[in-house]
Amino acid sequence: MGGWVRPARVDGTRTVLSQDAGTARAFTLGLTPAGSRPAWSFSVGGARVAGGLPEAGDWAYVLGQYDAETGTVRLYVNGREVGEETAAVPVAGEGDFQIGRARGVQGYRDRWQGEIGDVRAFDRIVVPGELTALATRTALRVGHWALDSAPGGLSPETGGGVPLKLGAGAPRSSASTTTPATSSTRTASRTGRWRATGTSASTASRATRPPTRPSWTRPAATPSAPASGSPTTLRPGR
Length: 238
Description:
Elements (H helix, E strand, L loop, with lengths): L1 E6 L6 E8 L2 E11 L2 E8 L2 E5 L8 E8 L4 E6 L2 E8 L9 E3 L2 E3 L2 E3 L4 E7 L7 H8 L4 E6 L8 E2 L8 E3 L16 E6 L5 E6 L2 E5 L14 E3 L15
Parallel strand pairs: 16-18
Antiparallel strand pairs: 1-6, 1-12, 2-3, 2-9, 3-4, 4-5, 6-7, 7-8, 10-11, 13-18, 14-15, 15-19, 16-17
């Protein structure tokens, strides 16, 4: 099982995924202290494999895998194996699948601080090519706005999609303007937040891999609400 994670804190033990087994856990995937620094961790039964270096604010794709044929557990971070393959004896887990917390004797604990997205649980081994695809995906463009006109404060989407609503005072180019207006390329992460960099037009992409060390800003312009029945293609961050 695995998913995209972005820890806000890396102190202590933090759980991304787990499964209840009575008052304990059948497995846990998350991060744990490793000496003087944190490390990604995957445990099954009493066995644990740990490695990598989680950093607060950084996105990572983390996947833990148990191989029933070899009786071992492995841990992958951003498509690469970390730590050492470890022998494990699984514990029967018939309880609930948990996201962001783990079961303990006194209740749930080790709660995740940060963001979690695109969680997947497999009933088989994830092959290397599939693992690489999960950890490295290309962006898909979902909209483009030239920003050279904005009748009623709405910049048309060049493909006929949802127009972009410009904020008060947003600059636009015109026939008498010799310097292009400042605009942005906006890439949406899995959480719907935006990263903005200067370009001559505004292109929005749905990033299927969150960036490492992102610098997030609130957009100066956001898409207007679509007509009834039309899909919403873009969302501003919180």
